[in-house]
Amino acid sequence: MTTGNHSSITEFILLGLSADPHIQALLFVLFLMIYLLTLLGNLLIILVIHTDSNLHTPMYFFLSHLSFQDLFYSSVTVPKMLENLLSQRKVISVEGCMAQVFFVFATTGIEACLLSVMAYDRYAAICHPLLYRQVMRKQLCVRLVWGSWVVAFLDALINILLALDLDFCEVQTIHHYSCELPSLFPLSCSDVSTNAAMLLSSALLHAIGTCLLIFFSYTRIVSTILSISSTTGRSKAFSTCSSHLTAVILFYGSAILRYLMPTSGSSLELILSIQYSVITPLVNPLIYSLKNKEVKAALRRTILKYLQCLR
Fold first, then answer.
1. Cα–Cα distance between 14 and 43 in angstroms, integer?
2. 263 partner at 20 to 30 Å CA-CA among 172, 193, 247, 289?
């Protein structure tokens, strides 16, 4: 078998979502609109939280960082996807591919960690309301956010350092619209068992670690809500969690399946990747704004204030 390495293989071909030029044009318009709406929605959430003093609480502090992370997340893959939808040669350099693998892995990990931190915040607010301010101090909130970024980047760094040692065969075609670590394994002539084991361990640690924290947090939350005698009180307590729970289901449902399923280049893989890397960053601002009265009120105040400034 003819083998190569990073010095002989200089680029990969990304097959993308379709080979039909007409469909590609439609997909370009669709994903461009999605990307612009993602940028607008998340920037608006960050702006509103930072300018409205009513939202200067731990819950919205974490939400602003989730919105920043979603900006980062979508910008890792969507611009390159848009470029390839308009290009005849849908290629990415090996270095660019490895960089994309690293940031896709890191941003996925950050999202998982932040969602678990937000679940703990809701647990503290609902189960220990009198101690909430004391427990969720600003210093702790900052450390939890920084911890999420550090853990995710270290995990991504370990996996990418192992991937850099892979030798690649002459086949350079990636059956995907972006570079993700599982998609590189079929292209390698090297033994990928160590890489696959590390990827599986990372995925399970992220999934089990963060999911357990979310599960135990919501177990206590549900128990506390059910113990509230007032129907209005139960409804109000649950409404503070519904947005976060929706975001958790959307993200974890697709991300865990994508990283645990075998790589085959199937349509299901593409759909799952689009779900957690493109759709989730788009809908998170909508979920938190449409289902949250405080955010909606702050949005109205912010828009009115800027309209008055323009007069």
1. 30
2. 247
Q: How many CA atoms lie within 13 A of 109 on its CB side?
A: 27
Closest to 262 (Cα-Cα) out of 190, 186, 204: 186
Among 78, 81, 76, 156, which Cα is nearest to 112's?
156
Write the pLDDT tens digit of every residue in 5-59. Answer: 444 677 888 887 777 788 888 999 999 999 999 999 999 889 888 888 888 889 8
Cα separation, 184 vs 172, in Å, equals: 9
Q: Which two tokens stand for residue 60?
A: 């919205």
* C-alpha Rg value of the chain to the nearest Å: 21
Asked whether 107 and 66 are in contact (CB, 8 A), the reply is no
Angstrom distances, CA of residue 38 to CA of 34, 72, 186:
6, 10, 32
- Go through 171-188 and write b for each residue having 16 or more CB atoms within 10 A of its CB, e for each that does not: ebebbbbbbbbbbbbbbb
* Closest to 122 measured CA to CA, from 285, 267, 247: 247
Asked if residue 126 lies in contact with residue 237, where contact means CB atoms within 8 angstroms, the answer is yes
DSSP conformation class of 272: H
Q: How far apart are CA 76 and CA 107, in angstroms?
A: 9
* Residues 47/302, Cβ–Cβ less than 8 Å: yes
Q: What residues does 169 pair with on adjacent strands?
A: 3
